[in-house]
Amino acid sequence: MYKIAKILAIILGVVGVVLWVTIARTDDPGSSSTIDIMINLGKYMTILAAIVALLFTVGNLVTHPSKLKKALISIGVFALIVVISYAVSSGTDVDLTKMAERGIETSESASKTVGAGLIAFYILGGLAVLSMVFSGFKKVR
């Protein structure tokens, strides 16, 4: 599976380079249809990379049950952080009438969801910094 994905990635990379050279050699690259082809190629390569990464991840988790347990614990902790963030988020920090006057239609639930996302981001960012600091101190000792 890895060899097939690697060969396919190389082929798509070569096609991308050929299309890039074609765009670079065109007098008016803005009107070129090869730009559309490049954009579509980028989309397809991103989708392919995501599928391959997902397949390898699932395959690795199935073959190693200890890693599956750790992954499920991590997913559970992440879900707990998201739930706590949503519970803590007030969603009333924004004056919805002023936003409507500016042409930005939003609702109380959308505001609360955005607030929860920001709180979750701050919590996860703080945990990442703490884990790096902890790892650095652990290596020093």
UniProtKB/TrEMBL annotation:
Q: Which residues cross the membrane?
A: 7-24, 44-62, 71-89, 114-137
Alphabetical keyword list: Membrane, Transmembrane, Transmembrane helix
Q: Which organism is it from?
A: Zhouia amylolytica AD3
In terms of superkingdom, the source organism counts as: Bacteria
Protein name as it appears in the record: Uncharacterized protein
